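quick q for whoever's on today - can somebody do inverse folding on this one?? i tried earlier but teh output was garbage lol. tokens:
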């Protein structure tokens, strides 16, 4: 029985060591802290990517025209571009950044999240292409009275 346990642990360790280092995600809160304290979408994008030159193509964004509950707005976004990161920003809350996804070669870049917005505003998705371009999509929506507490 001890032999089986040893073999199981050994095979498990070998399997873990075979996982590519590319699967490790970057902690953008530590590496780019100014992104998370930026009050405007433009400032947050500039802090994240060093540029605000956005290309309005390559990203699909789906969100409601009117959100009845600002505390849980469903947002879906995707891209078929070869990208390094995908980020979500909004201009309705004091801090503009919502999330940044560190994309790896095995990612399926089709996401659905729920975000909070205190009032009506615009959601911006930015996908950082491996070609250096910043692909984007934007959607303006109305939040019903009550905002995040809806």
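ok took a stab at it. sequence:
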């Amino acid at each position: 029985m001890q032999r089986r346990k040893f073999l199981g642990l050994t095979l498990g360790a070998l399997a873990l060591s075979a996982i590519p280092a590319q699967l490790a995600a970057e902690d953008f809160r530590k590496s780019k802290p100014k992104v998370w304290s930026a009050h405007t979408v433009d400032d947050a994008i500039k802090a994240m990517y060093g540029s605000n030159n956005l290309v309005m193509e390559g990203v699909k964004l789906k969100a409601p025209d009117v959100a009845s509950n600002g505390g849980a707005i469903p947002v879906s976004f995707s891209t078929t571009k070869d990208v390094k990161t995908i980020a979500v920003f909004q201009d309705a809350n004091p801090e503009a950044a919502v999330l940044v996804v560190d994309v790896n070669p095995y990612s399926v870049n089709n996401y659905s999240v729920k975000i909070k917005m205190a009032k009506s505003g615009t959601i911006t998705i930015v996908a950082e292409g491996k070609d250096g371009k910043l692909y984007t999509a934007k959607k303006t929506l109305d939040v019903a009275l009550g905002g995040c507490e809806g």
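fwiw Residues 25-149 form a domain with the Immunoglobulin-like fold (CATH 2.60.40.2470). also The two ends are 58 Å apart (CA to CA). so keep that in mind when u check it
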